[in-house]
Amino acid sequence: MRIAVLISGSGSNLQALLDEQGAGRLPGSVVEVLSNRADARGLQRAADAGVATTVFDHRAYDTREAFDAAVANHLQRLGIDLVVLAGFMRILTPTLIAPFAGRILNIHPSLLPDFRGLHTHERALDAGVQEHGCTVHFVTPELDAGPPICQGVVPVHTDDTPEALARRVQAQEHRIYPLAVRWYTSGRLTLADDGPWLDGRRLDAPVRVHAEDDVDAW
Ligand code: NHR
Ligand code: GAR
User: Fold this and answer.
1) Whose CA is nearest to atom 6 of ligand 2?
2) Which of 76, 100, 124 represents a domain boundary (last residue)?
3) DSSP state of 19
4) Of 100, 119, 142, which residue sits at a domain end?
5) Which range of residues forms the domain containing residue 74?
6) Burial of 213 (0-12, 13-18, 19+ CB in 10 A)
7) Active site residues
8) Given CA atoms 105, 107, 113, 116 in this order, what sign does their dihedral have?
9) Which atom of ligand 2 lies closest to the CA of 134?
């Protein structure tokens, strides 16, 4: 399968996928890295890995739909099978989602449906939760509300700062995103009308992965 990764920033999740690919553990290949920001550090990570990159500056388009149409056409011309949002910061409209329905993944830095939106680590600390984490989900027009696939769960420490918590969560992002992409590109994971299916069974709840779990066993 041909994978495109959409980024806006540092690209550490992109790097985790490139590392899996380099180790021969990712069925399919990342053939395109697309950013809406020319200064995204992830573009250099892609270039270092020999992966093609393209910048679509959203400010060059009059509407979200015009931006999405340009990106969708580009991805269709490349024959992309799976779109992976990795720190991509532009809300997508049905103009891009419809042609790739069931083929767009995102990773969100919280245990959805808790803490949709931005600044999730600060909000988790303010809420005093004991557990926090990250969620890989299929992308639908409703923001941060697509069907969840898997979650990385971490404990919250009483002396946590948002930065410390973010680091603990990101370590799990770099484990569960390659896991979910592997499930999809190996044909084990699909999105049906009634939700995600993994290995022939409907996922009524996201698969929960803890730090001590061996994701390679999945
Ligand atoms: N698009 C859809 N339709 N559905 C989702 O679930 C999406 C999405 C696009 C991006 C990532 C999401 C996150 O994991 C994501 C999920 C950016 C914003 C946002 O407010 C919200 C959620 C996410 C990413 N973006 C502002 C906008 O106006 C711009 C913010 C900025 O540029 O810094 O697009 O957090
Ligand atoms: C990740 O923590 C991801 O959960 C979050 O941004 C970071 C991207 O880091 N995503 C969003 O908040 C918006 N999708 P990265 O650029 O190093 O992969």
Assistant:
1) 87
2) 100
3) H
4) 100
5) 1-100
6) middle
7) 108
8) negative
9) 4
Ligand nearest to the CA of 46: 2
Of 217 and 147, more confident: 147
> DSSP per residue over 60-86, as a string?
GSSSHHHHHHHHHHHHHHTT-SEEEES
- Ligand 1 atom nearest 120 alpha carbon: 35
Residues with C-beta less than 6 Å from any ligand 2 atom: 7, 9-13, 42, 85-89, 107-109, 134, 170, 173
Per residue in 136-189, pLDDT (tens digit) is: 999 999 999 999 999 999 999 999 999 999 999 999 999 999 999 999 999 999
How many Å apart are CA 218 and CA 216, to the nearest integer?
A: 5
Q: Looking at the chain, how many residues does it have?
A: 218
Considering every ligand atom shown, identify the ligand nearest to the alpha carbon of residue 67 and give its number: 1
As for ligand 1, residues whose beta carbon falls within 6 Å of it are: 85, 88-92, 97, 106, 108, 118, 139, 141, 143-144, 146
Locate 40 and state its tokens: 């995204």
Q: Which residue has the tokens 């042609």?
A: 99
Q: What pTM was estimated for this model as a whole?
A: 0.96
Do 79 and 154 belong to one domain?
A: no
**Domain identity same for 123 and 190:** yes
Q: How many angstroms separate the alpha carbon of residue 90 from the centre of ligand 1?
A: 5
Residues 23 and 115 in one domain: no
Helix (H, G, I), strand (E, B) or coil at 90: coil
Amino acid (1-letter code) at residue 107: I
Ligand nearest to the CA of 92: 1
Same domain flag for 96 and 113: no
How many domains does the chain divide into?
A: 2
